Amino acid sequence: MKTFTKTYLSAQAQQQSLAHHRWIARTNPDVRIPRIVQVRPTEIDFEHLEGRHGGPDDLVALANLLGHQHTSAHTRELHAARLDTPHTHDTITITGFADGRRERLHRLLASGTVPEPALTPEAADDWLKQAAIMPAAFYKDSNPRNFLIADADVAVIDFDSLTLAPFGYDLAKLVVSTAMTTGPLPEDAIRRAVDAYNHHPRQRGLPGCSWREFAAWCEFHHVLTTPYLGTNGYRFSWHTTRPSWTTDVLRYLDKESAP
């Protein structure tokens, strides 16, 4: 079998990725992920999967997959989780949504290096407080490079990051990171992606992600991903690619309609 070897900086990082892989496999059993072939102290041999990374034309399909993943994980396990508290199940502990994020958001916003943020430290704190009582999903860094697409088959790869997150947070990462990679996205594609994502939680009676929440999570990712601009394929800043309605919807609290 052809394999792909991922090397980690430490045995702890390797064990964390291994635990994340096992958790995803358990909570999303019908989502394709590479099998683990062999484990060494700081390396994992994964099954090699063919395919290309995601792009703008895949946005709706990937959003649909994310909505399914998050709803499945919530239904199977995360309905018992609180976003402001680490979630422990068997041998894995998944960190809470605010853990580490609040400090990074405040530090980056105070640094003056984030161009035209539509988020203040106070607003970030308010959103983290609101998120604490939202239904729990997860964040796995859904940038377009963490998917492999072959015809109609989509595989999810890279298991380094995993935290609790509200519904829509990882969808916002997909949208922001795709725009930062390829440039401005058609607003209709973003609308259809959010609709495709929300179809899954709303089928289960869950609220999904509102337009205002989606706009806020996009701003979280603008702040947190700006340090990587110029690396990892990120060529465009979100402040030059964001649709104007995302900042409008954050300014006017009663605006919840689709753009």
UniProtKB/TrEMBL annotation:
<protein>
    <recommendedName>
        <fullName>Aminoglycoside phosphotransferase domain-containing protein</fullName>
    </recommendedName>
</protein>
<dbReference type="Pfam" id="PF01636">
    <property type="entry name" value="APH"/>
</dbReference>
<dbReference type="InterPro" id="IPR002575">
    <property type="entry name" value="Aminoglycoside_PTrfase"/>
</dbReference>
<feature type="domain" description="Aminoglycoside phosphotransferase">
    <location>
        <begin position="22"/>
        <end position="195"/>
    </location>
</feature>
<dbReference type="InterPro" id="IPR011009">
    <property type="entry name" value="Kinase-like_dom_sf"/>
</dbReference>
